[in-house]
Automatic annotation (TrEMBL), chain A:
Name of this chain's protein: Phosphate transport system permease protein PstA
A single GO molecular function term of this UniProt record: phosphate transmembrane transporter activity
Compartments, as annotated in UniProt: Cell inner membrane; Cell membrane
Family matches, as InterPro entries: MetI-like (IPR000515), MetI-like_sf (IPR035906), Phosphate_PstA (IPR005672), Phosphate_transprt_permease (IPR051408)
Pfam families documented for this protein: BPD_transp_1
Record bears the keyword Coiled coil: no
Sequence similarity: Belongs to the binding-protein-dependent transport system permease family. CysTW subfamily.
A GO biological-process term: phosphate ion transmembrane transport
One GO CC annotation: plasma membrane
Keywords: Cell membrane, Membrane, Phosphate transport, Transmembrane, Transmembrane helix, Transport
Residues that span the membrane, as ranges: 31-59, 88-117, 129-151, 157-178, 207-228, 273-295
From TrEMBL, chain B:
GO MF term set: phosphate transmembrane transporter activity
CC per GO annotation: plasma membrane
Provenance organism: Pseudochelatococcus contaminans
Family: Belongs to the binding-protein-dependent transport system permease family. CysTW subfamily.
Region span, Disordered: 1-23
Function: Part of the binding-protein-dependent transport system for phosphate; probably responsible for the translocation of the substrate across the membrane.
Keywords: Cell inner membrane, Cell membrane, Membrane, Phosphate transport, Transmembrane, Transmembrane helix, Transport
UniProt topology in membrane: Multi-pass membrane protein
InterPro entries on file: MetI-like, MetI-like_sf, Phosphate_PstC, Phosphate_Transport_Permease
Protein name (database record): Phosphate transport system permease protein
Signal sequence range: none
TrEMBL record, chain C:
UniProt cross-references to PANTHER family, sorted A to Z: ABC TRANSPORTER I FAMILY MEMBER 17
Residue ranges annotated for the ABC transporter domain, each copy included: 20-268
Protein's UniProt name: Phosphate transport system ATP-binding protein
Alphabetical GO biological process terms: phosphate ion transmembrane transport
Recorded superkingdom: Bacteria
Biological classification of the source: Bacteria, Pseudomonadati, Pseudomonadota, Alphaproteobacteria, Hyphomicrobiales
Annotated GO MF terms: ATP binding; ATP hydrolysis activity; phosphate transmembrane transporter activity
Amino acid sequence: MSITADDISRAAIGARTAPSMRRSFTESRNLRSFLLTAFVWILAIIAAIPLFSVLYMLISQGGARLSLDLFTELPPAGFMQGGGFGNAIIGTLVMVGIGALIAIPVGVMGGVYLGAIAPDSKLSAGIRFVAKVLTGFPSILVGIFIFGLLVQAMGTFSALAGGVALAMGMLSTVMLTSEQAIRMVPQRMKDAATGIGCTSTQTVWKVVLPTALPGILTGVMLGIASAAGESAPLLFTALFSSFWLESLVEPTASLSILIYNFSGMPFPNQIQLAWSASLVLVLIVLVFNILSRLFGSRKV
Amino acid sequence: MAELKLSSLSEKSISRNPSGAEYASDRGFRGLALACGLAMMLLLLAILIIIGREAAPAISKYGLGFLTNAVWAPGRGEFGILAEIWGTLYSSILALIIAGFFGVSIAIFLTQDFLPPALAQVFRTIVEMLAAIPSVVYGLWGIFVVIPAIRPLANWLHEHFSFIPLFGTSFGGPGMAPAVIVLAIMVLPTVAAISQDAFRLIPYKVKEAAYGMGTTRWEAILKVMVPTAANGIFASLVLGFGRALGETMALAMIIGNANQISLSLFSPANTLASLLASTFPEAGQLEREALMFAALALLFITFIVNVAGTIIMSFAAKQQTT
Amino acid sequence: MSVNLSTPATTAAAVNPQYAISASIDKIFYGDFLAVRDAVIGVEKGKITGFIGPSGCGKSTVLRSLNRMNDLIPIFRLEGRVDFMGQDIYAKDIDPVSVRRHIGMVFQQPNPFSMSIFENVAFGLRLNRFKGNMHEQVERSLRRAGLWNEVKDKLKQNGLALSGGQQQRLCIARAIAIEPTVLLMDEPCSALDPIATRIVEELMLELKNDYSVAIVTHNMQQAQRVADITAFFSVDVSKGGRTGYLVEKGPTAEVFGNPREQLTREYVSGQFS
């Protein structure tokens, strides 16, 4: 250490002049802060525009056509006026229902395994990793997978295949959120149950699952919401139908495929129906989204 | 096992050993849970195997030339996906640039105390809602809102700057530009959500240290917070890229489905996923086989990107929390 | 900068040229909660001022209001004034960012940035657009923080890879690299083991040659070992709240050996904590 430097700093302590600490807008750091802040505000507002534009179009275009007929009538052929998409609503609900029936038990049980039975095992880490990778997987690949697995074997597109495809898409969401909810259950609660002589199954059933239920339901609702809006997997599994659903093993209509088909048609009636179907579809998705938020806010 | 059980010490005790049924159900339950967990692994494996199997005939027929051929002519039985690979990467990269810029900025905006908590929650909900809108609805919106909205600007750009390859062709409606805009909107929530998590993982003491050194808020953000969250932000971009690569329906509706390789934002193009969606329902046997090869290519690309993103994310979370 | 040991060059407004900071705080609120009242206190130049008192007595709150760190808490409000070199740092036109560049701070938890050891120390220098020899100043700061010999061969290593005690010395090096006028230390040893504590305490005694230091500690032995002046705070629970206030201050030997107040006597003799 140089002696002079040391001397200077020692002297400086008594000799410092009072610095100016006044706020000055022209000082570069303050000006830059102001500009950057204004900039992120603008970006955030721009990012909000699409949502409001979509909602505005759904209400103005889709709402204009809203009537009971939409829910009770079948899709019209080209050039025809009127019509509805009752069969597509039923198809969407049925296939989402089939998906949920498969994905919820398997997903929640898988979550139990990851979160409560073997949280730190290598196998669990592997399952968790695969689930995360699959969450970001293109849903169209799941559709092609089910096409290869079921549709070709059964020889027909079907609601069943569509439901299975939706289940595969929901599975990772349900499993990962269930695991998280289960992990949030405080260790002292599990210890209390174990300490009173519960088998690990009893601990899970009587203590862990009831406590984690709101969190699990959050994941389930999120999974259902995203499945209801899915379209790519259905294109390869359920395809579409202009008739009422009569069996689970025939091509089945869905709102999303109806929107896809009608959006490309040169007829105003079909375009209007596509907007109305979009409104109904978004409402269905929103209901489950809001449900998931309600359960989420009740989390312990 | 039975010998090891304790016998009741007193006649009055209510305690008893678990019954055989309890042991059996315990074992059964654990087994079932394990099976459900394994189902996840099996699913991935089955996807790889089935799609690989479906693609096998086309692989043996066309070989690797399939990836470097830009012609898709079912009539002549000639198939190649170079144009789709180009379209997939080009649209995803452009969308990621936009979504990354907006998404990271919004993550900063929502986590660095720019807003009172209630207002921040409103913005956060708006961004999450963007993710809730189904892909087909974005497609419909793209056709009837985005394309008309950008038409004047696109025409003007083409008129005055057609020497720039980006604006080299005239705007005909469906094409790369509207596809990129819609894709960016759809990827934005992913980037914003994962980046927000990365910022939230930064311990409060780091922020304190930065302010204690006399940084302004933006100096703290740009010089301390962003570098600290860098790995998480990177993961958000990679996973957002993965989303963009596989996005299907909206693109099938607005990208124009034209088999060509062009730098122009205004010309129609195609992606692997939208090729599959738009061609598959009406495809004949020969074309279907070729489409399965395209699906395998999409699987390969998205698998690698998603695995990379997931690894980076868990690495980032581990690093930040220690 | 003029180098003159005899005439302290503060402005005429300075309350007392002996003090780097002199604060007369009437009240500190968090929302409606009155956290501190009646604290008249100073940081003497070239000396170490220790703040002691039971937990909840507001000693950290007072320390953090000396460089406007409390501004990070939106509901914080201060009545009174804090003079630093003759300027009220709570005046409307004062930029809190500038205040913190002159009054450095070391925190309870070591908080190095997730960057290299070198960049941690250079952080403030870059922030202030330091024009001199960066490497020399970093080395000087690390030497003064007593860390140079341990890290000179691994300056590129991440600061978070160091041990807790080393991290805290790195934070001290980071704080003094920009030559602040005052150094505030908020229980700097509470997260450290006894050996690391010993090293940091020795370091503080060195630092007071160059800086005016204020340290909050819950450890009375530590206050006796390092502080020239001690301020004792207590907490008033009479009106249902928990309001801290200054009981007395004076030369450390007096506060511990012959305190004026009964409360202080009881505290320093360990009768309550």
